[in-house]
Hints:
By secondary structure, the chain is of the alpha+beta class. The chain folds into 2 domains: 5-72 and 96-177 and 268-345, FAD/NAD(P)-binding domain (3-Layer(bba) Sandwich); 180-267 and 349-385, D-Amino Acid Oxidase, Chain A, domain 2, CATH 3.30.9. Helix content is 37%, strand content 28%. An 8-stranded mixed β-sheet has the order 6-5-14-15-16-13-17-20. Strands 8-2-1-12-19-18 form a 6-stranded mixed β-sheet, with helices on one face. A 3-stranded antiparallel β-sheet has the order 3-7-4. α8 (297-318) packs antiparallel against α9. The longest helix is centred in the last third of the chain and has 28 residues, at 322-349. The radius of gyration is 21 Å and the shape is globular. The protein starts with a strand and ends with a helix. P-hydroxybenzoic acid binds at residues 45-47, 198, 211, 219, 292-295.
Amino acid sequence: xxxxxxxxxxxxxxxxxxxxxxxxxxxxxxxxxxxxxxxxxxxxxxxxxxxxxxxxxxxxxxxxxxxxxxxxxxxxxxxxxxxxxxxxxxxxxxxxxxxxxxxxxxxxxxxxxxxxxxxxxxxxxxxxxxxxxxxxxxxxxxxxxxxxxxxxxxxxxxxxxxxxxxxxxxxxxxxxxxxxxxxxxxxxxxxxxxxxxxxxxxxxxxxxxxxxxxxxxxxxxxxxxxxxxxxxxxxxxxxxxxxxxxxxxxxxxxxxxxxxxxxxxxxxxxxxxxxxxxxxxxxxxxxxxxxxxxxxxxxxxxxxxxxxxxxxxxxxxxxxxxxxxxxxxxxxxxxxxxxxxxxxxxxxxxxxxxxxxxxxxxxxxxxxxxxxxxxxxxxxxxxxxxxxx
Length: 389
Ligand code: RFL
Ligand code: PHB
């Protein structure tokens, strides 16, 4: 098989890139290891920047997102007993949209057949070849037979554990990493949210986040030690923790319900420099990870593919390689600022095991200052809604 761009991975970055290329008349094929249900079963992001929602609008795949997404004009940072509202619309003129990654992915998957976007699911042993030459290709096993996909370029959209990043030789790269000494235990349940807007809380018992997917579906997280396993937690115990942290500060209090999903995600900051090697380009989680505090991961994947799709269209339609040559510098400038924001919000809102009374007072002083400083609230708001492309 032959195509112009082979895209590895059908998560948000691979699907968005595939649709953007298809819309511009560039041939591409998406090769995904998992089955569609597995991809849809991962409960991840919930908050979309306008960079992401604008891409869905540009693609004309925004009807359900516009009908069901919740437009949020603000969010809250909290201590044990105080709520500090960040009025993002008053401070920036913008908003964020609460719409689950699962829903966005489903919309992109459902639109694929009608638009001629080919996605090969359940492709085993995906491997990249000849990325340094002029004729790269991808091989994979489908239904027991090895397939070869020849292409002009490969887009590595295969997340943190995929093969694309690993195909780049060690001498050509530099890695930057910070692993945090805790994870987030998340629960999804069909109960009304405890508050109309998100709350990120730094409590004496640790960090907690009250989020949502709709007016009837809540998503909560609490900070847990890395040694905890999800089996260590009963639903009742988790609801008790959430009620203790959010009942004193939320509008409606925590409503309990049966868990639709419970899982633990470790927290990490990671940047892989380079995002290009020969004819391979990385985008999304394959090149960088942010801790979920600040909700930047999916939104960074969207900005990467906005840059990359324009660059690939320039090269393949106009014969102009300038966009491809500038891709990594443009993408990394935005990535590092999102890394900084997610790292600083993680430091401000979590209890670190190595911290003592002094560090706790520093966090309290910063939150107290934030409560009274429009300048500081503006800086947080403009990062939260997303820096311009
Ligand atoms: P993904 O979503 O990991 O998709 C990669 C795809 O590649 C496939 N793949 C392979 N395909 C072929 N061959 C192989 N060998 C392959 N290996 C892997 C995988 O099966 C998969 O389908 O990466 P992508 O597309 O770059 O998207 C990134 C986002 O998923 C991620 O950044 C966000 O989920 C991060 N994130 C959040 N981001 C936000 O913007 N806002 C949020 O509110 C937010 N909350 C979160 C989050 C991530 C979380 N976890 C669990 C990591 C909350 C959590 C808890
Ligand atoms: C979520 O709803 O899953 C969510 C919201 C905000 C974050 C992270 C995750 O910062």
